[in-house]
Specification:
Layout: H1 2-9, H2 15-18, H3 23-29, E1 33-35, E2 40-42, H4 59-77, H5 83-92, H6 105-120, H7 124-131, H8 140-153, H9 159-174, H10 178-191
Antiparallel strand pairs: 1-2
Helix pairs in contact: 4-6, 6-8, 6-9, 8-9, 9-10
Length: 192
Amino acid sequence: MNSYLGAILQQTQISNQMVLHGTASTLLNGKTESSSEDDCQQVVLSAEDPFTAGQFLSPIQEEYFLDFFWKSYHTCLFPIINEAEFMDHYRSLWADSGDKRRPAALVDIVIALCMQHGVSQISPEQQKSIIGGDPSVAGRWYFRRCQQLVTYQLESPTVSTVQALMLCSIYLCNGSFQNMSATWAGMAAEAA
């Protein structure tokens, strides 16, 4: 790409300007870092266990985003999940104490998608206070946990696995990770 642009524009292009090194890719895959340049701390996914690391929501917050899913994505765009079966499954995942849910790939990606969409709807000032101003990676802890779970399910996929893979592809596409999105869509087709 660099050679082509150099030939067409007849000027050299700096390769690191062509590759996006924005906060989205750092936040999605990086470690917790602190930037001294702008004195703000970026909270990103660490290399710790995705099942326990990260910022997960309370039951009430999760239910808010699930309700958001049924009213937005499911109704208009991607009606690929049976709501009654999904909600029964979701309720069965909560531990007896009610404050911690067992991980489930499909549930996690639905929440991640709705967090991403919901945060993109608020003002830029509010976004900065929530996620450093980048709504494309909202819900990243849920996405990473889903990614880990789905990877384990690929050897013997179920309908739920295919649904999770498709929604992961949509999450990545919304976050401008087009190549990764295409890869996940391909994995969904293979699993199906």
